[in-house]
Design a protein that fits this description.
single chain; 10 helices; Rossmann fold; binds NADP nicotinamide-adenine-dinucleotide phosphate; alpha/beta; 260 residues
Amino acid sequence: MEYALVTGATGVLGDGFCRELARRGCNLFLTGRSEEKLDGLKKELLAANPAIDCEVFAADLTREEERESLFEAAKIYAFNMLVNVAGADIQKPFEKYDEDKIIFQTRVNFEAAVSLCNFAIKHRAENLKIINICSVCGFQPMPYFALYSACKGALIDFSVALSAEMKKKGVTVTAVIPGSIYTRDDVREYINSLGFWARRSAKTPGYVVIKSLKAAKKGKRKIITGGLNKLICFFSKLTPQGIKLRYIAKTRARVEKDVF
Ligand SMILES: NC(=O)c1ccc[n+]([C@@H]2O[C@H](COP(=O)([O-])OP(=O)(O)OC[C@H]3O[C@@H](n4cnc5c(N)ncnc54)[C@H](OP(=O)(O)O)[C@@H]3O)[C@@H](O)[C@H]2O)c1
């Protein structure tokens, strides 16, 4: 039996991926930090889709030893899909970071995704589709969101390079690059506090899930979700860096997010 491995399954977007993959009849191996949330999700998924299998394993992906335990439990399965959703969108002035916060955000947004790619490639079924959830923030250095945007930028570059390495080896890698997504309450509130264009370009988790799975099926290297987001990214490339940095600093300095 082949499985889809989903990280961040207990989050809002991750939950969307799990429900859609289960609906399509995929066997699931899910991970998140909370065993209780994972067990609840497993119960719901199996009740709605009795024909699938669903395994869960709780792990903090920023800890090598917990990743090792996860890999130990998962290595008996063959994976035909990996969806790296886990991430932490901490937003605050960099001078307010401490060492623990730097390690946490860097590891969950980049190192963990890279490590999971390595594991899934080594334990792949005949074909493997990797989806890495990045962000449009990865296209542009962002004051007050500096570490997040740098990690997501690194994940985009890593995904594109890996897709070329794994070409013709039965593995596709798709960097999914969404703009804002209506997920957690604080994220929804933040999107609603932004201007007209930010609200217009924001998408539902369901939209991002469907677009991601479609792009992975076609073996695309990267996709920006939403026509307006594509347009904003295009015009952003034409805008001088200084103007963009001033605008981003002004809008991002208003709100701090550190819920992790
Ligand atoms: N929302 C947006 O506007 C937006 C836009 C672009 C990209 N994204 C990206 O989309 C992804 C999902 O975001 P979301 O809005 O759905 O956020 P979310 O609801 O907060 O989900 C984040 C997920 O990551 C998991 N996670 C966090 N730290 C972890 C760790 N150390 N070890 C293991 N798992 C960990 C969380 O687990 P717990 O349940 O244990 O906390 C949760 O399942 C993220 O990668 C985010 O960067 C979001």
